[in-house]
Design brief:
This protein has an eight-stranded mixed sheet with strand order 5-4-9-2-1-11-14-13, with no helix packed on it. It is built from eleven helices and 39 strands. With 636 residues, it is α+β, with helices and mostly antiparallel strands. It is globular. It has three domains: 214 residues, Immunoglobulin-like; 164 residues, C8orf32 fold, CATH 3.10.620.30; 207 residues, Jelly Rolls (Sandwich), CATH 2.60.120.
């Protein structure tokens, strides 16, 4: 009996050792060509979305990724957001060493649960769970698996084949399971139609991919949604917190927003009287709208509110009026209500805000928005109002919401519109300067620069121009592109308008501005706007060249030279022209002074991939001209 017990115990030990030595996801199983030049390899990735009803669905995610080096360390952790409409049902994780042995299993007390506070939201029921399986020795593999229940069909996950151009994929799948009556709509980019099957009275759409090597992301290229193979997905019918709607057209999407906003524009009587008082002498729609807008800015402040369906439904206008705060939806709804009170029709607008955000896909109605603004039809023009800022110029959209498509909410539903564009003719940086050069090479400069249009936002100037002395001085120090200088004096002037501008005037002391060598003085005429950017060299360019911001720079610099100094030679004017823009620089002696004039205009546009070499050459020529030195001689 004792012997039998020893045999049984030995079998258990053997089985345990065998199980431990049975590797899973060993790094040696990855083909070399999938690792070369990469910092991670996705071994398996599955995204499965199942529709149960107009108000219920679930998402199951399983991902196994091998971390080859520290560049991919962030992929060893996982963050999952949830709220009362998106409930996290399970969350598991395992780490393996290079041989595929389990070295760590995620314990429940190692999953950190916290409020998803973003620093600007006053109210939010968003939360997140986070787990970290990172190891100190490379390579290693992590496996995450989790499931979320959605109490709405409003959100159907999109799919991107990859999000990083230095991670290969061995196997990946995207599956959507649904009742035939609730089949989601989809739009494919560089992806073939799915395989269709049936299971348990539901239909199944599935895409599978193997041995994927990502296309390298190229700078100055199109939005990644126009480069990376992807699938856009959206419901037709849905229900969100008892609000039923359709998303098969922009008109119907807008009707759902109308239902959310219904009866939320009621203002207190005292506020109605106040609005009538402040606008009683206004002669035009624009003047009246400006007065109401300035009242909004003086009375309210922005805070994020993400409670329940609050991510889509604004607070009532009366609540904003009473509390003095609201998010973009609440403040925009409040503005529409106040304008209505003074006899001005205005529209609530949904938009995808942010500099360099992907463009709205107008051909595929879906939830693509992260912000709300207001539009005021005004004869042949439209006034556009950003309601979350206390300092934003009236009518100015700028890089945050300008020059893009948006969804106007009307009584009849949604309508796609375009926000104001800002061409190179209004995005101007205009600089004049007088530079007094001394025989020692030191100099003093008086510089006046006007930043207009989108250049009003250069390095957050639009914010800094409203701040105190120390913030403004720091901005001047960081944006004066001269090797060595001291600020003697400076001032900033803010000129608000639909095309705003800021004037920055400075007096500078420039130590060793010019180089003195014997009888020669060397200086670069371009005072503080020298281009040094040259796009990286590419043997083959695959994607189109995209220039997103048009602008014009104008520099007029007058150098007051010491007596008895003359140029050893006067350079010829420089002219560089291309499809991307134009550059001109000229040098002229005038009564013993050097007048340097520079003009650079950059166009917005999309150009064929083969034009990339031309772009590189254009920047190279501009940089060469901007950094050219002049040599002056002393007569003594």
């Amino acid at each position: 009996m004792k012997r039998l017990s020893l045999i049984v115990a030995g079998m258990f030990v053997y089985m345990a050792v065998t199980a431990k030595e049975d590797p899973k996801y060993p790094v040696s199983a990855i083909p070399e060509d999938m690792k070369t030049g990469m910092y991670a390899v996705i071994r398996e990735q599955e995204l499965r979305f199942e529709v149960n009803s107009v108000s219920n669905a679930s998402t199951h995610v399983h991902i196994v990724i091998t971390i080859l080096n520290a560049n991919a360390k962030s992929y060893a952790s996982k963050v999952i957001w949830y709220d009362k409409f998106n409930v996290l049902r399970s969350f598991k994780g395992i780490a393996y060493d290079a041989y595929g042995n389990v070295i760590r299993k995620l314990k429940q007390n190692e999953i950190y649960d916290q409020s998803a506070f973003d620093g600007s939201s006053l109210f939010s029921d968003d939360r997140l769970k986070k787990a970290d399986l990172s190891q100190g020795t490379y390579p290693y593999t992590v496996e995450f698996e989790y499931e979320t229940e959605h109490k709405t069909l409003f959100f159907v996950p999109d799919f991107e084949l990859y999000e990083d151009d230095e991670i290969t994929i061995q196997k990946e799948s995207f599956t959507i399971i649904y009742p035939p009556a609730l089949k989601p709509r989809y739009k494919l980019f560089k992806i073939e139609e799915p395989k269709i099957s049936s299971a348990d009275a539901k239909e199944v759409m599935q895409w599978t991919f193997e041995n994927v090597k990502p296309e390298k992301f190229e700078k100055t290229g199109p939005d990644l949604q126009r480069v990376v193979p992807n699938i856009a997905v959206a419901p037709t019918s849905f229900e969100f917190d008892s609000y039923a709607g359709k998303m098969d057209s922009w008109e119907n999407y807008g009707k759902w927003i109308v239902s959310l906003n219904k009866d939320r524009d009621i203002l207190p009587e005292q506020t109605k009287k106040k609005l009538q008082e402040i606008t009683k002498n206004a002669k035009t729609t624009e003047e009246k709208a400006r007065l109401v807008y300035e009242y909004l800015q003086s009375k309210t402040r922005y805070v994020g509110i993400q409670l329940g369906i609050g991510g889509f439904q604004p607070f009532e206008a009366s609540v904003v009026d009473q509390t003095g705060y609201g998010d973009c939806k609440a403040l925009s709804n409040y503005m529409v209500a106040m304008l209505k009170e003074v006899g001005i029709h205005a529209n609530y607008i949904l938009i995808r805000a942010g500099r360099n955000q992907p463009a709205m896909d107008v051909s595929f109605p879906s939830s693509q928005f992260n912000h709300a603004v207001v539009a005021v039809p005004n004869a042949t023009d439209t006034l556009w109002l950003e309601c979350t800022s206390q300092v934003n110029p009236f009518g100015y959209m700028g890089s945050f919401t300008g020059d893009r498509y948006a969804l106007m909410i009307t009584e009849n539903g949604g309508k796609v519109v375009k926000t104001p564009r800002y061409p190179a003719e209004v995005n101007i940086q205009s600089r004049t300067a007088d530079v007094f050069v001394e025989i020692t090479g030191d100099a003093k400069a008086k510089v006046k620069t006007t930043f207009s249009g989108l250049q009003y936002e250069n390095d957050n100037l639009d914010y800094v121009v409203n701040q105190q002395y120390d913030d403004q001085k720091k901005w001047v120090q960081e944006n004066t592109d001269i090797p060595a200088f001291d600020i003697v004096n400076f001032s900033m002037t803010n000129k608000k308008g639909k095309i705003p501008s800021a004037i920055v005037s400075t007096e500078l002391s420039l130590k060793r501005f010019a180089t003195v060598s014997g009888k020669r003085i060397f200086l670069v005429p371009n005072l503080m706007n020298r281009s040094s950017y040259i796009p990286e060299k590419l043997d083959t360019r695959k994607t189109n060249v995209v220039l997103r911001t048009p602008y014009t720079d104008l520099d007029t610099i007058r150098y007051h030279l010491p007596e008895g100094i003359y140029p050893e030679f006067l350079p010829d004017p420089v002219v560089v022209k291309s499809r991307f823009g134009e550059y001109e620089a000229s040098f002229k002696m005038d009564q013993g002074n050097l007048l340097y004039i520079r003009r650079l205009r950059m166009n917005k546009g999309e150009y064929p991939a083969e034009s990339y070499k031309e772009l590189t050459e254009f920047y190279r020529n501009v940089g060469k001209a901007d950094n050219a030195k002049m040599v002056f001689m002393s007569k003594t």
